[in-house]
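Ticket #4471: complex job returned nothing on first submit. Input attached below:
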Amino acid sequence: MQYKDYYEILGVSRDATQDEIKRAYRKLARKYHPDVSKEPDAEERFKEVGEAYEVLKDPEKRAAYDQLGSQWQAGQDFRPPPDWDAGFEFRGGGFTGAGAEHFSDFFETLFGAHGPFTGQAGGTRRSHRAYQARGEDHHAKILISLEDSYQGRTRSVQLRMPELDEQGHVQLRTRTLNVTIPRGIIAGQQIRLGGQGGPGLGGGPAGDLYLEVEFEPHPLFSVEGRDVYLNLPVAPWEAALGARVPVDTLGGKVDLKIPAGAQSGQKLRLKGRGLPGKTPGDQYVVLKIVTPPATTEAARDFYKRMQKEFSGFDPRKGAAGR
Amino acid sequence: MNSNADEGRLAVEWLGDDCRLTLAQLCRLTRLSAEELIEMVEAGVLDPLGGQPAEWRFGAPAVRRVQVAMRLRRDLQVNLAGSAMVLDLLDELRALRERLRVLENRD
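Support reply: We reran it on our side without changes. The output follows.
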């Protein structure tokens, strides 16, 4: 078990006032709240911050924690001294914070269900024992590819779930679920798996599992809602004269007609070739004119001839700053 | 809301475009009372189609919006009006991030 430095986690000194601790907690909770934060490890950090606050906001738990001494380093292998809580008078009543069952072993050992801080009032899990209750709903984000959504593929999804073993310790269990991705699902939407959430208590039904979908970055396409964007490099003569070129779509290659006189940055729409749905998305092909390099004498001569031929052409005509 | 029978034992339900939940269905999914959900409608967390609560139909984002609002209240003491604003801003942020990614990919 690793020692946790709750002061370091909240970024406060060991002699911080209760007000300072509260302010530091609120700030970090806003920063790492999984519904709001874009930090990749937001959920872990949010739990860690919540655990630290659970201890430091309570003067009794804080005093007991301080008693362990300040010589410990975060992450150091830790065993509580046998009489670490001697001399403290506890009112009973364990942690009350929601999600306390997801706290670390370190917390669990010091303040958990079997620790001295749980009196008659009980920790959350003990107080639930007497009732029959439906299990908690669980939530997770999953990354899928655009193709998964386009085709409605079945994906194997791995989730790490904290679970309580018979001794009441938190164990991380990896679950693998085969989930058929609904065709046309878009980022931010949810799939509900009935009865796949937390187990019920006292014979109650299990909760549900909600999976929120996000798209993995795609090597070719970017996506906005149901619309798909693809960059298409074209030669100057294809743009000027018009051409038919094969382009990738989520449904395979299609022939795209480039109109004569096309310009770089121009968007061509392939109707209904985006993600499927009641109103299917479109695919937009964004043209990018690529000029052949002038690395040979003949190529340079050719560009010079063009320059002469198009002597009246000013690409910056009407551009800002002119 | 589509159910997928091919999933074997897993009952998969897509809270997607076809989703048109009644108030009673949303109560069951979120385990909140009708009164609590009506409060959320009044605060702007939810924006159902239809006039009277009995006619209300909730679209795809409703379940997620309720869940986020409850977490924001529990974790950050955000009230319902504040949650409605956070949710709208998060939607806007998502749209802008997608737009940004599209534009960045052009270069």
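Chain A touches chain B at residues 26, 29-30, 33-36, 46, 50, 98, 134, 137, 139, 177-180, 182, 184-185, 187-196, 208, 210, 212, 222-225, 229, 231, 265, 277-278, 286, 288 (CB under 8 Å). Closing as resolved unless it happens again.
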